[in-house]
Amino acid sequence: MGHSAKLGAGEDDARDADLLPGPLAGLKVLDLSRVLAAPWATQILGDLGAEVLKVEQPGKGDDTRLWGPPFLEDGSARPDAAYYLCANRNKRSLAIDFARPEGAALVQRLAEGADILVENYRVGGLAKYGLDAPALLRRNPRLIYLSITGFGQTGPYAARGGYDFLVQGMSGLMSVTGRPGGEPGEGPVKVGLPVSDLFTGLYGTTAILAALNHRHRTGEGQHIDCALLDSQVALLVNQAMNYLVGGEVPQRLGNAHPNVVPYRDFACTDDYVLVTCGSDGQFRALCVLLGRDDLAADPRFATNPGRLRDRRVLEVELARSIAPWRAAELLAAMAEAGVPGGPINTIDQILADPQIAAREMLRRMRREDGTEMEVIAYPARLSRSPASYRLAPPRLGQDTRAVLAAELGLDEQAIEALCAAGVIATAGPARQDREAERTA
């Protein structure tokens, strides 16, 4: 079993912390998902202590294992991509071909002992294997079964495949993301991360926890239908409410805020800074800092509605006053004056930031073959039952043999027969075993 270590902390202390039972300890999750939205949900459950059994296709595995470079160099002929590593820790990998009747029977038996099942196949795609929600809830009425799809189990788009980029466009998100018309680089832009996938995974996890409480009260499992499009529409938040209340269709504003001014990026002599004034007092403090008491005293800008109405005039004046500053000096002065703001970090800069180090947001994990990697930590801090980092993202099929023996009672002869028939697969020798073979 792999173990983790907190950066800057003793390895023994980290190992002890990761042996504590998490808040979801004792729950068993059967993970039939791949790519991102659903694996993100199951990784959260695993971080919080649940046992997650990830079922993958023999010889191929999760699609994202090949979504590189970069790949984790571990000496194997087929290393895993970084994309796969971001969403698959705290899981055990079983390679089972459930398109074969024998494989489907194995997964059905695993579902009978599971608390939660998560899948992201197209609507109706698992029914032919007897792995759909109605079939498995008959076998296990306490099962909580989460289906994540592009458009949900109902509606005119239900049969369509859904992808993050597609949903970012269809949902309206891209219509408010990007530079406005008339500016250089104008046009809709997707968010630089697959946010529709990630938000859906988060909503799915929240729904699972709600269903667990319902089961605690009633003993009933249930089917959860979670769609990328629904999740992203729900997350239009203030932009959608601006339209529902005000009747005006929101437009692209670049880095500006639709409701708050000043709340955007400004250019200094050497870099950009973010200015995020959320109150009239913060705006006045910014004006004093910039030596622009005239802006603070101007009745047009005294309150946020006025600043919003005359934002173009105000932002031109602020840009003129900010331009001579060096970014670091302005941000230091803003912090001293109580004006919220910050830099636009690159990813390497934020991962090296002292705040991230203080919050222990980078964790080091070690695979069972000794290969080390760093991962981004689970962000919420539970004072009594924290998240843990017990298992590094597994190699394809590394746990098939052990799990089938422990969970289903299969003996070595039965497992070997399934391997020979191509129904299951087990991982090849770990790196240290291969090296031992070469030196023998």
From TrEMBL:
The keyword Transferase applies. The keyword Transferase applies. Keywords: Transferase. Gene3D superfamilies: Crotonobetainyl-coa:carnitine coa-transferase, domain 1, formyl-coa transferase, domain 3. GO terms for molecular function: transferase activity. It comes from the Bacteria. PANTHER family: SUCCINATE--HYDROXYMETHYLGLUTARATE COA-TRANSFERASE (PTHR48207:SF3). This is CoA transferase.
